[in-house]
């Protein structure tokens, strides 16, 4: 199997002609695959680790050059990144749009639901309904223990049990407008604009409205989906060795957990 054949299988042949950022970013799309690396972001450390491992393909969820369409900027940091990428012997392919909106469930959201391991039903895209109500504070603790969130932040009503959860992982357009009007009581998000959406959640709580927001960070919220992808690749294509490369939390903290 070649890199292009694998990515066509993941994206869906019917989607390959649609406008997307899910394209080959470096290397040979026809390279035969023995080892496939998967990551959230192709950081320098991840690129070096993939090279040392002998990867044939690296599938990354986020952009490589700090621009959604991977248009390189004119600055010394981007130049160093370009030089490192060009030195890599493996192919790099982005898998962003169609892991969210391609074949079947939103794979990124599904990955976090799997990490939480709470009994309930997932609609496959945004909404997860718990079998038994749980408080946002308890869910935030599980996000730290099971999903790697270092410091989950809660705005709203942390100790009011909730049953229906909506997911806005990553940046999700930086907006959670639908959450303000739907019947879900808790939103789990990666990052949001504080002066806009987070303040709205604080106001909602002060109005006595059952709306609470948990922020866990962009990368932490989406990494479980890519980790799940690496495992599914191993199960679906046992002849190809697949491995998840964790780029870690983007932040450091005064008290590191």
Can you name the CATH architecture of the largest domain? 3-Layer(aba) Sandwich
Helical fraction = 25-40%
How many structural domains in the coordinates? 2
Task: Give the beta-strand count.
Answer: 11
Structural class: alpha/beta
CA radius of gyration is 19 Å
How many strands, what sense, and barrel or not for the largest sheet? 6 strands, mixed
CATH class of the largest domain: Alpha Beta
Strand content: 15-25%
- Average pLDDT over all residues: 95
Strand order of the largest sheet: 5-6-8-9-10-7
CATH superfamily of the largest domain: NIF3 (NGG1p interacting factor 3)-like
Low-confidence stretches: none
Describe the oligomeric state of these chains in a short phrase. single chain
Give the overall shape.
Answer: globular
Please explain how this structure is put together.
This protein is an alpha/beta fold and 257 residues long. The chain folds into two domains: 3-98, NIF3 (NGG1p interacting factor 3)-like (Udp-n-acetylmuramoylalanyl-d-glutamate--2,6- Diaminopimelate Ligase, Chain: A, domain 1, 3-Layer(aba) Sandwich); 107-219, NIF3 (NGG1p interacting factor 3)-like (Udp-n-acetylmuramoylalanyl-d-glutamate--2,6- Diaminopimelate Ligase, Chain: A, domain 1). It contains nine helices and eleven strands. The radius of gyration is 19 Å and the shape is globular. The model has no long low-confidence stretch (mean pLDDT 95).
